[in-house]
Write a structure and sequence with these properties.
elongated
Length: 126
């Protein structure tokens, strides 16, 4: 019986080490993303979001998802955004700052009509 108990104790200890390692890695990833977010805040003062990949070394989608977070934190009112016609589509831009809307997936959004863009703004900022 003693051998089985030691075996299960070993399995339990191994499982706990795995959980601890995952928690540590997640915490380190959060710290890294926090540092990246601070760097992006600084870079956006002088640069367009399209340049963030080159300037940070992180992939474009990660950078733009952080830009989206910043938009939601700082410009989270529908009155901060307005649709503008660009070629044959409607795009959402900041009213009082230079910024094109980037969604939660890190993508720019284009709309066929001004109404669609306005509805998106209303839905996003309820």
């Amino acid at each position: 019986m003693n051998g089985i108990g030691e075996y299960y104790d070993h399995l339990l200890a191994e499982y706990q080490r795995k959980i601890d390692r995952q928690a540590y890695e997640e915490e380190e990833k959060e710290k890294e993303m926090g540092r990246l977010k601070e760097k992006i805040i600084e870079l956006l003062e002088e640069n367009h979001p399209a340049e963030l990949e080159r300037l940070t070394g992180y992939d474009d989608t990660t950078c733009k998802k952080i830009v989206h977070e910043l938009y939601m934190e700082g410009f989270n009112d529908r009155n901060c955004w307005e649709p503008e016609r660009v070629g044959d589509i409607w795009v959402i831009f900041g009213k009082n700052f230079s910024g094109e809307w980037i969604d939660e997936n890190g993508d720019y959004r284009g709309f066929d009509t001004k109404r669609e863009a306005m509805d998106y703004i209303k839905e996003t900022f309820k």
